[in-house]
Design a protein that fits this description.
Chain A: GO terms for molecular function: transcription coregulator activity. Chain A: InterPro entries: Mediator_Med18. Chain A: This is Mediator of RNA polymerase II transcription subunit 18. The complex is a heterodimer of chains A (about 220) and B (about 525). Chain A is an alpha+beta fold. Chain A contains 5 helices and 9 strands, in the order βαβββαβαββββαα. The relative contact order of chain A is 0.24. Helices cover about 65% and strands about 0% of the residues of chain B. The chains are: A alpha+beta (about 220), B mainly alpha (about 525). Chains A and B meet through helix 3, strand 6 and helix 5 of A and helix 8, helix 9, helix 11 and helix 23 of B.
């Protein structure tokens, strides 16, 4: 299971967000470049088609593959009250013939996208991962070099943390309290909801980017 | 305290510039510095004495160490230390730092750390700063000096207050640090807000669901140059890479395409088992195309592996041939069709040459088994399905082969053969395969063999069929059941199932798992 929220930020404020995240997390930022292939199962694998995502991490010289299945989200009145989406996820590292394997099983490529950006991975009550990425689509199949951003001026921020059925309450609390720190810059909410921009973002970004922010008091 | 110090300093300055600075008398009295100093010195002496006494004893005679005595002395020392610390603590919290924990590590560095005397450089810096500040005032009487200094301090304090106020006001204005929505912030105009919302929808839909990212079917062909990580992922993995990548790109993958192509490539890359068995009076076509540099035939490694498989499969095939007589002929033929049809869109040129090679090895055994089985009408019906479904040429060579076959087919009359000709014109070789057996269903073996040219597709089909035969007979039974479903996709499934069985003999889980699903 994982707890996840998403938000948007304008590309001009990404640097300010990075400074804020750097300060909050205390870890160095890591580059993030993932080619995500979304595969849908064919009718031979059941009446309801399922979706599987293959993520190829292109950050290192040797690409590493991960398979990820995103399950249904938690439902019910309790879930409605949470500001964080809790959903089942299964993830595993796989070898590079995973794509062939899934094709052989009958999965077909539904869509693919390329996410480029940076991420922070740290522990703050829970193991939180914050990724700020520009999502790119490829007009030609698999041609990564020609990827163009889906929304050029806007990037996606995703805060996620793994959880189990026992401890998801604490993880939810940890994630939402962390998100409050980011409140001046962006508003984070469940992936399905639209958030819009935060009115204070310009001022907050300006203050973060000003020289005074770098000085030790 | 600060003012007292200043006064003390002023006094000192007033008295004499050379004299060292002294603290205020009252303060001195309070601190009882002299007393503390004496005590500290005493303690120091005691400890060193004890050390002197006990050290040689402990070194000389380990047995004679009298712990009780030592402990007694130690407790005295401890008491003294305690008293000193109490004295110091009372008064000098503001001035003195005393260490909490002294051990071997920090004992040497502590005196340096505790000393309040400035390092020489720092001291000189401080004196120079003092000079600067007081220089202007030095000529005045002390009281005036004090007043001026006071006024300076007040001015600085006022400036600090003003600055902090300004910061607080700005904070309020911009809403930083407060969690309520500020009222003073100008609202974003509606047009911009709408634009932003639209962008947001686009982005989130793309990331979460994939809207706007799907490529229409006709553009879904693999590019000629794949990025490195995908080359690895999609390659056949056995050292066989396509000779002409453009051939791949010309395939219209459609719904099945990538899946089947990849699976077939996989199949072609690894399907070494070429069933060989039975006698054959058919001459091998000498024109087996060998100039495929990457084909397994030219490599040595691949050839070693198949032989044991071939032998075992020969036996299997003999048995299966007998088994798969009339009652099962339908199923086999349909499986042939399935194999063919699924194979054709995915045929890359590397797969074809491989199969050609295999066929060259194993033609004889196949031909008999295949052609001995009559076709059913069902397959004839399936053919138009296939031809409609598969619309691409795989390559010119295949087309030429098709033309060759056509000439041979001239001997056969009937609707089947005309259908065959039409199909041959429009479709690929693989489609011709079902047509051929259909045409020759009623014929004897000999004329079929004369069809000759061991139509490569026919060889392919044979091999495929035998490959299917090499799998569990249970699978065959299942495929028979699945005939009823018809449709292309189930055929694909069968092919893939067979492929999986073929390629992963170790993964016996697969057939078992899939069986219940079906």
């Amino acid at each position: 299971m994982e707890c996840v929220v998403q938000g948007i930020i304008e590309a001009q404020h990404v640097e300010a967000l990075e400074i804020l995240l750097q300060g909050l997390s205390g870890v160095p930022r890591e580059h993030f470049k993932i080619h995500e292939l979304c595969l849908k199962s064919g009718p031979n694998l059941g009446a309801v088609s399922s979706e599987v995502r293959l993520l190829c991490n292109l950050e290192r010289p040797e690409p590493s593959w991960t398979v990820r299945h995103i399950g249904g989200a938690m439902r019910g009145p309790g879930a409605e009250q949470l500001s964080v989406l809790v959903r089942t996820t299964t993830e595993s590292k796989v070898s590079k013939n995973a794509l062939r394997f899934f094709y052989a099983l009958g999965y077909k490529l539904d869509h693919e996208l390329l996410k480029v950006g940076f991420m922070f991975h740290f522990h703050r009550v829970a193991l939180i991962t914050v990724t700020v990425t520009s999502t790119n689509k490829m007009p030609k199949l698999h041609v990564i070099e020609e990827a163009i951003p889906v929304t050029p001026g806007m990037q996606l921020v995703e805060v996620s943390a793994p959880a189990t059925a026992d401890n998801y309450n604490e993880v939810v609390a940890a994630v939402s309290s962390f998100c409050e720190y980011l409140a001046p810059l962006l508003h984070l909410s469940k992936p399905g909801h639209l958030t819009g921009l935060v009115p204070t973002v310009a001022a907050a970004a300006a203050s973060l980017m000003s020289k005074g922010s770098g000085q030790v008091l | 305290m600060a003012t007292e110090n200043v006064q003390g300093q002023a006094q000192a300055q007033a008295q004499a510039q050379v004299q060292a600075e002294k603290l205020n008398q009252a303060l001195q009295h309070q601190l009882n510095l002299e007393g503390v100093r004496t005590r500290a010195l005493d303690l120091f002496n005691t400890i060193s004495r004890l050390l002197e006494i006990f050290d040689p004893i402990s070194r000389a005679n380990p047995n004679l160490r009298k712990w009780q005595d030592i402990l007694g002395q130690f407790s005295m020392v401890n008491l003294e230390l305690f008293h000193i610390v109490e004295e110091v603590k009372k008064v000098s919290k503001a001035f003195v730092v005393h260490p909490k924990n002294v051990n071997a590590e920090n004992s040497t560095i502590l005196p340096v750390m505790l000393s309040s005397k400035l390092l020489p450089e720092m001291e000189s810096e401080e004196t120079s700063m003092k000079e600067k500040l007081l220089h202007s005032l030095s000529h005045l009487p002390v009281s005036t000096q004090i007043e001026r200094l006071k006024s300076r301090i007040d001015m600085i304090a006022a400036a600090c207050d003003g600055a902090s106020k300004a910061i607080a006001d700005a904070r309020k204005a911009y809403g930083l640090g407060s969690r309520q929505v500020p009222s003073m912030v100008p609202p974003i105009d509606k047009v911009q807000a709408a634009k932003i919302q639209e962008q947001e929808k686009l982005l989130k839909a793309a990331v979460n669901v994939g809207d706007g990212l799907r490529i229409p079917g006709d553009q879904k062909h693999l590019p000629s140059v794949l990025p490195a990580h995908l080359v690895d992922a999609l390659s056949s993995g056995d050292g066989v890479h396509p000779k002409n990548p453009q051939a791949i790109s010309t395939n219209n993958i459609g719904t099945q395409g990538t899946a089947i192509q990849n699976s077939y490539t996989q199949f072609g890359g690894r399907s070494v088992p070429s069933p060989s068995g039975g006698t054959s009076s058919i001459d091998n076509t000498s024109a087996s195309p060998l100039p495929y540099a990457n084909s397994p035939r030219s490599g040595t490694g691949m050839m070693n592996v198949p032989s044991p498989q071939q032998q075992s499969q020969q036996q299997q095939q003999h048995q299966r041939q007998k088994l798969m007589q009339l009652p099962q002929h339908q199923q086999q033929l349909i499986s042939q069709q399935q194999l063919r049809q699924s194979a054709s869109p995915g045929l890359s040129q590397n797969a074809v040459p491989q199969l050609h090679d295999f066929q060259v090895q194993n033609q004889q055994k196949f031909q008999q088994a295949q052609f001995s089985q009559p076709q059913s009408h069902q397959q004839l019906q399936n053919r138009p399905l296939q031809s409609a479904h598969i619309q691409h040429n795989i390559g010119q060579s295949q087309m030429s082969q098709a033309n060759q076959l056509r000439s041979h087919l001239g001997q056969y009359t009937g609707t089947a053969s005309t259908a065959l000709f039409n199909a041959a014109q429009a479709s690929t070789n693989s489609q011709m395969m079902p047509n051929m057996p259909a045409a020759i269903s009623s014929q004897s073996i000999l004329p079929r063999m004369q069809l000759g040219q061991r139509s490569h597709p026919s060889q392919m089909l044979n091999e495929q069929m035998f490959n299917m035969g090499a799998t569990n007979s249970a699978n065959m039974a299942q495929m028979q059941q699945q005939q009823q479903f018809g449709g292309v996709l189930t055929n694909t499934q069968n092919l893939q199932q067979g492929l999986v069985n073929l390629q992963n003999p170790q993964n016996s889980n697969y057939p078992q798992q899939r069986q219940p699903q079906q």
